[in-house]
TrEMBL record:
SUPFAM superfamilies: Homeodomain-like (SSF46689), P-loop containing nucleoside triphosphate hydrolases (SSF52540), PYP-like sensor domain (PAS domain) (SSF55785). PROSITE patterns: SIGMA54_INTERACT_1, SIGMA54_INTERACT_2, SIGMA54_INTERACT_4. InterPro entries: AAA+_ATPase, AAA_lid_NorR, Homeodomain-like_sf, P-loop_NTPase, PAS, PAS-like_dom_sf, PAS_4, Sigma_54_int. The keyword Protein biosynthesis does not apply. PANTHER family: C4-DICARBOXYLATE TRANSPORT TRANSCRIPTIONAL REGULATORY PROTEIN DCTD (PTHR32071:SF57), TRANSCRIPTIONAL REGULATORY PROTEIN (PTHR32071). This is Sigma 54-interacting transcriptional regulator. Keywords: ATP-binding, Nucleotide-binding. Residues 132-358 form the Sigma-54 factor interaction domain. Gene3D superfamilies: 1.10.8.60, Homeodomain-like, P-loop containing nucleotide triphosphate hydrolases, PAS domain.
């Protein structure tokens, strides 16, 4: 790119409000705009330094350090790329959404890349007094999905065990959406009766039933311009599923006792800890409603899928529940927490921490404060290092081959013993082993 075009680009970027840098194809920062210098510069000179040194304090590009590198992806694919990274900033590490856009010369060759950074406000990688916190790969994967779907108006279905933070995720989607200035209205569908559902959701007119002394606004109306979060959607009885489907299909509703169909204006987020697909098979959840609410599913990981987040979560939850400020956990307490299996996930962790704060008198919350009332909390079941495991769904033939190769390598089993354990004849075992690819 000629120098004058590059200078024009740099001065154009300088006027933009979002932090942006221009890089050459060798990861070197050529220029940074004023917003970048302000948010990420930390008073250090930037031009001439490599982006991975500034953002990650790495000595090698991200892709060689086990992270995805948007610059490399853009160079390879020739297209803009977006990834979520943990970046060093003058405030500490933060989740940053990074977008790269390739810049081409007259011959169409990529000569530079513009990188745009947006600090993610909806989640923290450091202990925080509110909102989502986490930095494990499972958490970052979920955050990536939240940020992708939030700007659209697509219906999101949050799936995950109880206490995994689905309501917080629903709020994060709302806050990252164009509706963030509108209301966020949460409705618990568990225990909803037919009459309650209709009058709660749709409101009622004066005189609609005994006790309806005045017109009452429903939650659908309260959510106008914002997000309606239906929690425990799997608990909704079939008769109410029909009513919800009608609302979603027509975008209109009628107050109880009213005549007019009123327009609804909300973004729908639903959540459940149930297996809705199995409920559809069992005909306890309507298939058409399932498809309507499941435009974009997001899995909220269970705590045992993100145990590396436990110290960070524990510190954050302590800030939230402790009546005395500034206390902390001892390293043994944190190690003990990280080794437990919490069936109730973050909610159970939070309750345990709250109990411990009541038992501890000093500045430090120690392991005995945790174990005193929770000595029955089971340890985390870690798969044995040599256990057989399959990380994804594979064809049954492939599964059998991998399993046989693993079983054959077990010490202490001869062919006869192995055949007996597998429940097949030795002849069959030989035949199957011969079909295995060479080790
Ligand atoms: N990533 C997180 N960071 C910090 N706190 C969290 C996080 N996830 C959940 N929490 C806290 O854990 C508790 C349970 O979260 P929440 O109520 O959102 O779970 P849920 O999945 O909606 O549960 P249920 O399915 O039972 O309704 C809340 O106190 C919430 O603030």
């Amino acid at each position: 790119m000629p120098a004058h075009s590059l200078n024009e680009l740099i001065s154009f970027l300088d006027g933009l409000p979002e932090p942006r840098i221009v890089m050459d194809t060798d990861y070197r920062i050529v220029a940074a705009n004023a917003a970048y210098v302000r948010e990420f510069g930390g008073g250090q000179p930037l031009a001439g330094r490599k982006c991975y040194q500034v953002s990650h304090h790495f000595d090698v590009p991200c892709d060689q350090a086990g992270e995805s590198c948007p610059l490399k992806l853009s160079l390879e694919g020739g297209e803009p790329q977006r990834v979520l990274h943990l970046h060093h900033t003058p405030r500490g590490e933060e989740h940053v959404a990074v977008e790269t856009t390739p810049i081409r010369d007259d011959q169409g060759r990529i000569t530079h890349l513009v990188e745009t950074m947006r600090v993610v406000r909806q989640a923290s990688s450091r202990a925080a007094a509110q909102g989502l916190v986490g930095r494990s790969p499972a958490f970052v994967g979920m955050l990536e999905k939240i940020l992708r779907v939030a700007p659209s108006d697509a219906a999101v279905l949050l799936l995950g065990e109880t206490g995994t933070g689905k309501e917080l995720v629903a709020r994060a989607i709302h806050e990252a959406s164009a509706r963030e200035d509108g209301p966020f209205v949460a409705v618990d569908c568990a225990g909803m009766t037919e009459t309650l559902f209709e009058s709660e959701l749709f409101g009622y007119e004066k005189g609609a039933f005994t006790g309806a002394m005045a017109r009452k606004q429903g939650l659908v109306e309260a959510a106008a311009g914002g997000t309606l979060f239906l929690d425990e959607i799997g608990e909704l009885p079939l008769a109410l599923q029909v009513k919800l489907l009608r609302l979603l299909e027509t975008g209109t509703y009628r107050r109880v006792g009213g005549l007019d169909w009123l327009p609804a204006d909300f973004r729908l987020v639903t959540a459940t800890h149930r297996d809705l697909r199995a409920m559809v098979q069992a005909e306890t959840f309507r298939r058409d409603l399932y498809f309507r609410i499941n435009t974009f599913p997001i899995h909220a990981p269970a705590l045992h899928e993100r145990t590396e987040d436990i110290p960070l979560l524990a510190a954050s939850l302590l800030e939230r529940v402790d009546r005395k400020a500034g206390r902390r956990f001892s390293p043994t307490a944190l190690a003990w927490l990280s080794e437990r299996r919490f069936a109730g996930n973050i909610r159970e962790l939070r309750n345990l921490i709250e109990r411990a704060t009541l038992l501890a008198d000093g500045e430090i919350i120690d392991q005995p404060h945790l174990t005193e009332l929770a000595d029955d909390l089971p340890p985390l079941a870690r798969p044995a290092a040599d256990a057989f495991s399959v990380g994804e769904v594979v064809a049954l033939d492939d599964l059998e081959r991998s399993y046989l190769a693993w079983a054959k390598a077990r010490p202490g089993l001869d062919m006869a013993g192995l055949a007996a354990r597998l429940g097949v004849s030795q002849r069959t075992l030989y035949r199957k082993l011969q079909a295995l690819p060479p080790a």
